[in-house]
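Lab manual, section 2.4: Encoding a predicted structure.

Procedure: take the sequence of the chain (293 residues), apply the prediction step described in section 2.3, and record the output as structure tokens. A sample record is shown.
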Amino acid sequence: MIINFGSINIDHVYKVSQLPKAGETIPSNGYEKFLGGKGVNQSIAMAQAGAKVRHVGAIGNDADWVLSEIQNCCVDVGSIRKLDCATGHAIVTVSDDGENQIIIEGGANQALTEDQIDTALKNGSPADDWVCLQNETNLCSYIAENAKALGYKVAYSAAPFIAETTIEILPHVDLLAVNEGEAESLSNALGLAIDNIPVPELLITKGANGADLRFGDTSICQQAYKVTAVDTTGAGDTLFGSFLAEYSKSDDPQSALQYAAAASALQVTKAGAATAIPSYDQVKNFLKEQMQS
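Recorded output:
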């Protein structure tokens, strides 16, 4: 099982011809509302890849439909609390070429409690389970430190990137996931080369250029698959969640990274974040087509 302490957002998505510049007002060409948030995107990617996933988080009283959507994606929602505050949300602008800008309001995501975290960890199996977290909830250091102390393997998707928080959590991390810019920022903050960032396993996502995985003295480079992007929101979450799910099942990092790259490629061909994540069968069929072409 993967126990994911993660954000749950309502994404308000506005389609625009091009992303606005500073001080610029532009018209929207369309509006949609989706389930999103880095945490829940990753949970759904994990579940779609066939992993057993328990999501630990919080929503407000305004989001019963959100809980239903997460549950419909085969994610265990028993550790999601409903609070008397606003659900986390994001304002997303997506341009015609698929690029995006995102503003996040934490809401209920910033209201996790130590009791909620302790209960979730006690109900897991440290010898077999992974714990996953990101930077969109509160108490990240508490989650990582206590999970590691109990013997869990800890996966950390260090976004939105905060150097001080990431450095504090690193000693408790088995697998760190960052994008290229975040890897460079962390390298500079530590005063170390990227290859010397002190974690057992390092996953660096590179957008259209794929992803790199370093574990021990071994490195794997996975190229991105060529697709026509409609919306890149959630692509990195899909890649990371899919990778962790496959890796936790197979213990084969190379095949897990290949699967994750394919899942991410398919995800960007549809609008939305969580709702665009492909199923296991869709990814496997896509990989077969790629091998035949």
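Check your result against the sample. The first strand starts at residue 2 and ends at 5.
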